Amino acid sequence: MSLLSLLLLAVTALLPATAQPAASEPSWSYADQSSWSAQSPQCAQDRQSPVSLETSEVRDWGDGGRPQLSFAKDLKAGQLTASNTGRTLKVTLRDASDQPAVQLKGAQPGPVSGLYTMDHMHLHWNDPTGGRGSEHKMNGAFEQAEAHFVFFNQKYGSVSAALEHADGLAVLGLLLRPDAALGPTLPTLGLDGDLSQLSQLNSHFSRRADLRPLRGLLRAAVRGLFSYEGSLTTPPCSRVVTWLVSDRAVSVEATFLEQLRTSLSADAAGTETIQNNWRELQPLNGRTVVRYTDQDLQQ
Is the pTM of this model over 0.85? Predict the structure, then answer.
């Protein structure tokens, strides 16, 4: 490599992060979910998600087998990459050494076994009228948004490889409501000041971020879980997901939720923003929903 090439690489590395085009996804629409199965046959098959979760209708397992979380060592100087996919806000989180920020370890008997590594987090939300925004329904009610922390089974090495296996993914779902009285609040990690950089479809940026607030949120979330065998909630609707849905809603800042509804373009022309990016409820078709709880919370 020439000296000039080395200098150019050095200068480029020092430039501030800017929003860049990201890879586009196959064509499908939340407004026309009935057509998903034409491109993705699994969307019309069984074991689909999301579903309605009712405490009175689940098998209560107690504390045994509840999965545990571990966190990377240096989250204070973490790395955050955020992108506007045209259908959601996708956020990848890694520590200062470029290691995944979170891992999930399961044990039998329990919903998952082995080690799962977090790939990314993404969000689903409503429109400005304030109706349904969550994908799952819990005890008769939808919430205004839902966060999904997507983990892949470590033995498969990546999300793409995990999509070929029934135990490939574990997704931790948190239903979100703008209500500070709920306790833990979804940390924005500074994204509330950055969403203007993602107004363009398929744009993304990377920067440093303090990821430590995730620890308290996620540890609280796994203290009580609904779990069932399901699928991706977007095409190709792969039936490879063990769902872990926190049994308590989590707070989200109302201003951040409003920014999500209004800041991210859903089309290249910028005439539409991403809203109501949730899938319709799917039938259980005989599946069992299990609830795992921290026994200390029941006393």
Answer: yes
Chunked mean pLDDT (size 10), the chain, 299 residues: 38 41 65 96 97 89 81 96 97 96 89 94 96 97 98 96 96 97 93 94 97 96 95 98 96 96 95 97 95 63
Q: Check which CATH number belongs to the domain holding 193 and give it.
A: 3.10.200.10
3-state helix, strand and coil shares in percent for the chain, rounded to the nearest 5: 25, 30, 45
Cis peptide before 100 (omega within 30 of 0): no
Total number of domains constituting the chain: 1
Domain limits for position 112: 37-294
Q: Is 169 helix (H, G, I), strand (E, B) or coil?
A: strand
Q: Is the dihedral of CA 24, 27, 29, 33 positive or negative?
A: negative
What DSSP line would sit under 38-77, residue for residue? HH-GGGGSSS-S--EE-GGGSEEEESTT--EEEE-S--TT
Residue type, 174: L
